Amino acid sequence: MINTILIVDDSRIARMMLNNCILQYKEFEIFEAEDGKKAVEKYKELNPEVVFMDLTMPVLNGYEATKEIIGINKDAIIFVITADVQPKSVEKITEIGAFAVIKKPAEPESVRNALIKAEEKLEQRS
User: Fold this and answer.
1) Which of 42, 57, 74, 126 could serve as a FRET partner for 64 with CA atoms 20 to 30 Å apart?
2) Number of folded domains in the chain?
């Protein structure tokens, strides 16, 4: 079951839009970080069930932050939300450990489907 979600994006507007998409599906406790470094710190503090991660950010990019989070928890469920859906980028972030990649801007349907997949994955682990 998903209780806590971490949204990571340097754009406040992108975080707000994603937050709205998530809440169209179900109520969750949602936290935000505006760069990869803060995302890793919040991940350690909150241990969220799901992370939505942008790739292009200051301080620590999404590739580096995903790698660090996977280093903390190899089973972390990280959805990368990015406009960069070139096969090479998708392959690279998936190899690092991202659960899936969602094209930005995220549509409510894509976010809902991602959360359903995450819930299924969490149920399999229990």
Assistant:
1) 126
2) 1
